[in-house]
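Re: beginner question about structure tokens

> Can someone show what the tokenized structure looks like for a real chain? I only ever see the sequence side.

Sure, here's an example I had lying around. Input first:
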Amino acid sequence: MIRRRFLAAAAAVSTVLAVAPAVAQRPPPSGIVELEPPLATDSKGKVEVVEFFWYECPHCYALEPYLEAWIKTLPADVEFRRVPATFNERWMISARVFYTLEAMGLLDKLHRPLLDAIHKDRLRITDEKQLTEWLQGKGVDVAKFSATLKSFAVEGRLKRAMALVAGSKIDGVPALMVNGRYVIPAGIGGSEERMLAIASSIIDQQRKALAAATPAASPAAPAKKK
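And the corresponding structure tokens:
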């Protein structure tokens, strides 16, 4: 079951945020949520982009190939990370699996294959037997996975995800959040490409605002002659 997806007319989002630092705080276009005050980010000195998702969400799966290609185009001063949504107990199971794979250093290797298994092969991630068999097939140490699943490290990450989801005020996925301030809800723009284009515009604005707020390095003083 998927939470209500945000809806916004494509015409309403045809106007994007201006990129000049002087207008960085202007009201966002219709359909985009501006959080005030903004949420704290983990990427100091960079523009942070968060994708809120759920492993079983077909819309998140549809976005994934576009997202993977888009991530490769992001500048070095932009940090991307995924945060699993935690609306109910079923969603929490997916979130726990995500953070367990992350803690084991297996997320980059298994994130997309797990999505494919769920949406193409009908893997039920909430079925412990099915998930265990799938993990074994991928060469994962199941005993270690089970122990990590219940670890304090994973519990801590889950609590942080719950706080971030609550603070972002999202009620559907996939959703993007830029710099803890601008939330781009599901369905905006009418297509995956348009959603990411809107995100790119906001990222560009935030990068320029960040550059304007960063003091320029002072030129080195000339060496004294001995």
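Each token stands for a local structural state, so reading them left to right follows the chain. The mean pLDDT is 86.
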